[in-house]
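Q: What structure does this chain adopt?
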Amino acid sequence: MRQGEASLQQFGFFLFTARLVREKAVPHCVRWVRRFLMGEASEERLADQVRRCCENLERNGRLTVLGTPEGPRAGA
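A:
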């Protein structure tokens, strides 16, 4: 699990340095990815699992799609 955590930290650093999300959002994104990866195995295609996860986050107000006026790059 240590290697997985190190990879998640690198992922968070990438999100920040690539300016894909606001600095405050990095820990939340890493947590969401961790939760997704720790979910139960499924026969569902990975693309469908990711889509469903993002839809759930968006429905709960926890995801803002990049490129929208509310997105992290707004006004950049």
